[in-house]
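We now fix the convention by which a protein and its fold are recorded. The integers have meaning only within a learned vocabulary of local backbone shapes. A record is reproduced here so that you can trace the correspondence yourselves:
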Amino acid sequence: MKTIITLLIFACFTTTICAQTISDEILKQNRNMEAAYNSGELAKIADYYTENATMVGPKTEVIGNENITNYWKGLEGRTVDWKLENIEITAYGDVAIQRGISHLRMYYKENIVQSDVMFTLVWIKEHDQWKINLDHYSPL
């Protein structure tokens, strides 16, 4: 009986540690994406998406890493700053779901505008790194 209880405690502890590690890795990817945007290196943002990723928003569907690269490059010369606010990350083995709010500021017709959107990201492991496989966003 002691062995079973010990194994159950160990399993719960290990699961909690693994989920925390996954969350930390994904939050690090968020910070890297922000840094790429904030330094104007927009093509680098696509590095955080899988080869077959899909981005879906209002009247927008972008499929494949090459098209996602072009999507982000469309903001070249217009960047101000970007902050990703995490609400939650839930891990399911090699898949994780992240919900949050994106606060992106950019130039539009010589004025700084802010785009605030709610996002849901489906992260999967690709080449031993957490990458976005599905990016869904809706304006707030």
Q: What stands out?
A: The longest strand covers residues 111-126. The domain at 2-139 is CATH 3.10.450.50 (Nuclear Transport Factor 2; Chain: A,).
